[in-house]
């Protein structure tokens, strides 16, 4: 049939990557998938890093790795331009493993330079639930024997955790036994009930940037953010706000009890090579320090 035809076109040696469901996706998006696979082989992906800080202490906590595609013709592409095409496919696992390996390489280099930071990477649901995931993680640390696993944090979408709460919880616990931490990304945008939140062993909740944006003007957003912050305190979890763009965002968050932040108001995502100098030169916001 047609799916088979597309798969054959893609080359026999690659067929194992795709099951029947994926063939259907490949039919629609075959070209993009092929290009993304080629980009991976040709080393066209690159990790940018965006700092995370404690505003009250004026301390850099670490950075989140964010993937970019250095496209030969189209320039630097953000994940929105290519991730949706592969999220339903096995390719997201190959790409995720590449991100993990690169992030550990960078982390090793920074630890060798004396930087004591936590690096976060985003993990796609399909990747986390892949049967090889924990073994791949162990292999990554085995390849970097000096690395402290508690310096790696995995960000998973709140919505992803709901797909199979039992398995997600089990995998999270296995990773945490190694020392790796977990953050629930874009928190508040999914539909997770508080029962799920109670069951999930996430170390950190990451408040979605859509609630932060209008926190000064929208009383409902303010109530949501305050609610999440209080919840994390009661559940003994850490909390961080994403999308902190202004001094006022930070001041209000500090008043509400959220000290940790990430956003353009602190730093934009930057190439890996720029991060050590950024950390050395960063001048914490003086108003934030007064809290
Ligand atoms: P995310 O994990 O929630 O990452 C935060 C996104 O918000 C990033 O976009 C970041 O550049 C952007 N951002 C940070 N601070 C601000 C701010 O103050 N204002 C605004 N407006 N935006 C801000 P980016 O890099 O385009 O990534 C988008 C999403 O793509 C990420 O959302 C994450 O879900 C996904 N992603 C990125 N890298 C990876 C990866 O390596 N693997 C996987 N599976 N997903 C990734
Ligand atoms: Mg994230
Ligand atoms: Mg997020
Ligand atoms: Mg997001």
Automatic annotation (TrEMBL):
Top-level taxon: Bacteria
Domain (EAL): residue spans on this chain: 29-283
Protein name listed in UniProt: EAL domain-containing protein
Organism: Methylomonas rosea
